[in-house]
Amino acid sequence: MEPELISKKDLLLTCGISYGQLYRWKRKGLIPEDWFVRKSAFTGQETFFPREKMLARVERILSMKDEDASLDEIAEAVSSAPLPDTFSREELVQGQVVSSSALDLFGERHPGTDELRFAELLAVAVADTLLGSGDAGRDEALAAIATIEEGWTTCEAVSCDLVLLRKMGVSIVLIVSSGSELMADTGARVVARIGLPERIEGLKARLRSIERGERQ
Amino acid sequence: MSDTNRPDTKIAGAGTVTGGMYGEVVIAGAGTVSGDVDCLAFKVGGVADVQGALTAQAITVGGSASFMGDVKGTDVVFSGNADVHGALSAETLRISGVARIDGAVSAPRIEIRGTTKIGGDCEAETFDAQGVFSIGGLLNAGTVSIRLYGGCDAHDIGGETIDVRLASAWAFLPFLGDRNLTADSIEGDTIYLESTRAKVVRGANVTIGAGCTIDLVEYTGTLTGNAGVVASRKVSAGA
């Protein structure tokens, strides 16, 4: 399904921001380039944004600004680039970033690994969601972990969704670009579709708040 | 500037330099750089053909230079003739000669005094043009200041303060030809326009000065316009 769009003018009115602010945020990389959707309108071309994502992003930027964060700090917090560090299992469980059962699953795949890179953490977090919602079984969660680990370079570069398809008890995990349509044959069912950019952002925000908590 | 890891190199006649790390690269004659170069200073007084990407702190082209790849520098000055086939990024970019950049340009401070053609988008905090330019994509800058000495165009312009005026005084010479700015859309907080042709202008406080043809103006604050040159349609978008 095509995501619902909001025009630039409506966005500015709804959020009470100015053209200047929006262009500044664009320059600072606070809003991803592929969120600017150009469509022809009666005045020529007009710019639209994916409504939900954009409203959430503006709200986040404005709330960080209220906390006196600089635009560079906000850019770092909202960008889809991964954090460079690795994260230990212990701090992830303590900070309640992911559940220990999801981490155990990861441990099965990589025995003896106590430090997770961001891509691996993302994989575990997505598996955690799938398991938690009851949408996926163990094997499917494992397949999701493997798929994200292998597809990470793609997920990092473009907005992607993870899709879990099931037909007659056989499941397939896919990574597709966000917003793309998915057609499967009639017997197949999309069990779950998880937007990765939102997860990446959510995780980073969570990790940062833990870091801040430790310093205080 | 010499350093064991970064030797200086100079071409005074005709010659070729291979890519690599250098201190200072000076091309006074006709020189070819056959690969990617990372240096502290890159100076062209003659004719240079750079076949790779260039990363340098100071880049000065007084002669003529063509760059096949991207150009990245801190202070970039094009006073001669420069042709960049890739993208250009810098802290300060000053163009007083003739420059053509096929890709995108990004620099906090851009000063244009000569003739510039940019194929992609152009991003700056301060964009100060007193010359002629053509931008194929979006010109996005905090402050856009344009003094028209000739025909200028950008696909779109966006920013906080946008100020477009005819260059004054002695510049009124007949051989200069048409002096105007053309853009599809111009969007900003405070906008002042003279001699501008645009399909749509959107902003908070908009002033339409002499010599403008604007199809549609949308404003949320105030709209000021000289009689007879105002837009064909005005929409107050204020809630």
Q: How would you describe the overall organization of this protein?
A:
The complex is a heterodimer of chains A (216) and B (239). Chain A contains nine helices and eight strands. With 216 residues, chain A is of the alpha+beta class. In chain A, strand 6 (160-167) and strand 7 form a beta hairpin. In chain A, helix 6 crosses helix 7 (118-132) and helix 7 crosses helix 8. Chain B is mostly beta strands and 239 residues long. Chain B folds into two domains: 1-103, no CATH class; 126-239, no CATH class. Chain B has strands at residues 9-11, 14-17, 20-27, 30-33, 37-44, 47-50, 54-61, 64-67, 71-78, 81-84, 88-89, 92-95, 98-101, 105-106, 109-112, 115-118, 122-129, 132-148, 151-166, 180-193, 196-208, 213-219, 223-225, 233-236. Chain B has a six-stranded parallel β-barrel. Chain A binds chain B through residues 8-9, 13, 18-24, 26-27, 43-45, and chain B through 123, 125, 140-142, 158-161, 184-185, 187-189, 199-200, 202-204, 215-216, 218, 237, 239.
Tell me briefly what this model is.
The complex is a heterodimer of chains A (216) and B (239). Chain A has 9 helices and 8 strands.
Main attributes of the structure:
heterodimer; A: 216 residues; alpha+beta; Multidrug-efflux Transporter Regulator, Chain: A, Domain 2; 2 domains; 3-stranded antiparallel β-sheet; B: 239 residues; mainly beta; 6-stranded parallel beta barrel
Write the layout of secondary structure elements.
The complex is a heterodimer of chains A (216) and B (239).
Chain A: E1 5-7, H1 8-15, H2 19-27, E2 37-41, E3 44-50, H3 51-66, H4 71-78, E4 87-88, H5 89-94, H6 100-109, E5 115-116, H7 118-132, H8 138-157, E6 160-167, E7 170-177, E8 189-195, H9 196-215
Antiparallel strand pairs in A: 1-3, 2-3, 4-5, 6-7, 6-8
Chain B: E1 9-11, E2 14-17, E3 20-27, E4 30-33, E5 37-44, E6 47-50, E7 54-61, E8 64-67, E9 71-78, E10 81-84, E11 88-89, E12 92-95, E13 98-101, E14 105-106, E15 109-112, E16 115-118, E17 122-129, E18 132-148, E19 151-166, E20 180-193, E21 196-208, E22 213-219, E23 223-225, E24 233-236
Parallel strand pairs in B: 1-3, 2-4, 3-5, 4-6, 5-7, 6-8, 7-9, 8-10, 9-11, 9-12, 10-13, 11-14, 12-15, 13-16, 14-17, 15-17, 16-18, 17-18, 18-19, 19-20, 20-21, 21-22, 21-23, 22-24
